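S2.1 Query sequence (Glycine betaine transporter membrane protein)
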Amino acid sequence: MGISAFISLILIGAIGAWSEAMITLALVLTSLLFCLIIGLPLRDMACT
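Output structure tokens follow.
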């Protein structure tokens, strides 16, 4: 798994899509954070 991730990163850099990939990664991580912030309290309220 680590080797395939490394090869994927090398390939992204080789085709010149590094900045687009980092923007996508930032968007995904930000949306994950927002989903956790909203979802965890909702889960707790639903369980009570």
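The chain has a mean pLDDT of 95. The two ends are 40 Å apart (CA to CA).
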